[in-house]
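Weekly sync notes, structure subgroup
Attendees: PM, AL, DS (notes)

Item 1: joint prediction request from the bench team. They want all two components modeled as one assembly rather than separately. Inputs as received:
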Amino acid sequence: MYNYTEFDADFLATRNAQFRQQVARRIDGSLTEDEFKPLRLMNGLYLQLHAYMLRVAIPYGTLNSAQMRKLADIAERWDKGYGHFTTRQNIQYNWPELRDVPDMLDALAEVNLHAIQTSGNTIRNVTADHFAGAAADEVADPRPVAELIRQWSTDHPEFQFLPRKFKIAVSGSAHDRAVLKAHDIGLRIVARDGQHGFEVIVGGGLGRTPMIGKVLYDFVAYDDLLPTLEAIVSVYNLLGRRDNKYKARIKITVHEHGIENIRARVDARYELIRPHFTGVDQAMLERIRADFAAPAFKTADLAPYKSALQHYPAFRSWADTNLAEHRVPEYAIVTISLKAHGATPGDATADQMRLMAGLAARYGHDELRISHEQNVILPHVHKSDLPSVYSALHAAGLGTANVGLISDIIACPGMDYCALATARSIPIAQEIATRFDELKLEHDIGPLKIKISGCINACGHHHVGHIGILGLDRAGVENYQITLGGDGTEDAQIGERAGPGFAAEDIVPAIERIVLAYLDLRTYSAETFLQAYRRLGLAPFKAALYPEAKADAA
Amino acid sequence: MPKPFSPKVVTANALIEGDVVYQTAAGWTRVLAEAEILTDEADAEIRLIDASQQHDSIVGAYLADVDTAAGIPAPTHFREAFRANGPSNYAHGKQERL
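Output from the run, pasted for the record:
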């Protein structure tokens, strides 16, 4: 966990004091909304459908228990007792009042948290693999470099008014859990000749024009990383389309100019600025690395764990779905599902946040992570403690055994909250989860990712869902389009549109038809939905989805 | 022939709470049913300009279509229905007070 220096604390205090004055001037009428809006957005404050919304950055998704407890306190004191964890590893409060926001930011600063650059045309919160520092398949922990990028990008004078927002993700594993190829820049730590460096991917993104990122460089050394990033963003800053908001992301810049052209420009810019990077950043990185030293892993008797697996079916089921392999064999990575059947994906009450904080403090070396899939992770739990962790989670309504299954749905806030949305997402997620729970088919279906966005901007990552759902407004009625075969991993793929959309009351039966078709079509029970889709293509799923069209053709 | 003007209300968000508000003849209300119904296009434009100048109390004023069949304004689009009631996943927002 990165510890703030005096410089960091002073910077944040100054910034919060400035914003407090800006809010006061807005309330007393000296600032108009047009003057105030860019200032509030720089500090993560949106005005949504029913209220303001404060988006708080959780850098690379990492929290300690004190920070999680503070998030709970803020939810209770200034909001409605809950928070919403998002697909950028942030937390959003849906009901703050304008006059309270400066106090909320001060409370966040007490635990080294802030809302800076969670909006606006800047480099946003840097995301990372939520299993960072714990995953068995990891080359190196991506968080120290994510923190370095956070420091470099925060208030970077050249990059405060980019053509559009800019999102960076970092992973240290071959298996991509951070959706690197759907980011403006995706960085993957790789090893070559015994040295670690970065594969640099640019120009990915979802939204209106989904694109899979392209490899700009296959190996960039650590000390060349910041100058390389600065060169890329600098080239984009000049070249990006400021004339058209819908063509302003770097994915369009890369698409229009071609990767070779972009590489030549970045190379030229790099040559120019490289001498200014004198190694200070590497000294800083060394200090940051010390903050992310691995915890002192313990050893203990595994008998309680083995016995619980044998004698306690509910624990066994949870262990099968919600645990991942840790790099230390006696440990496990616990994913706490925020997707109880029928609940709002990503929401946690203040009490649940406190419970998770307590478990992290007692059993998890004081670490928590937020995943882009809107779940909470305890990255380091000794297997002997798993039965106790499960019992506590289960008692708090957090023991749902569905990670990676059909009810572990990503959903953006949609038109229940968001001013940009064209349809609701949350109720669709709730209904799908409830329906498949009733059918008792979830575990038989196996790994299946459903992702739902309530508008074309794709905060719900629907393009990379195995089944993606996009909510639109069709002549004043909510309508849902289905895409199939999307994938957000290292084999990234944009889903194919299945056909005409469905009304709200028809979308859950439509999903059911696709899934039942898959169960009939798979050749063996371990063939996943995505594997079956890749083998068979769209046609048989489309036939199941639109039976009337098939009848017409017959 | 020009399209007939459909009835409208002026709506916005309150500056402090962010809550949805509607213009009345005398000021603002939090309840759509109490909003002033505007049936004349020129009058609606003037009322919107008037609302837009009230920087110290509201944000983002615009004209929203309403259905007046029942004698009181009701939303015609689902977005305005959510604004008038609150989200569908929790009984928060305006519906808490209804």
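Discussion: The two ends of chain A are 63 Å apart (CA to CA).
Action: AL to compare against the crosslinking data before next sync.
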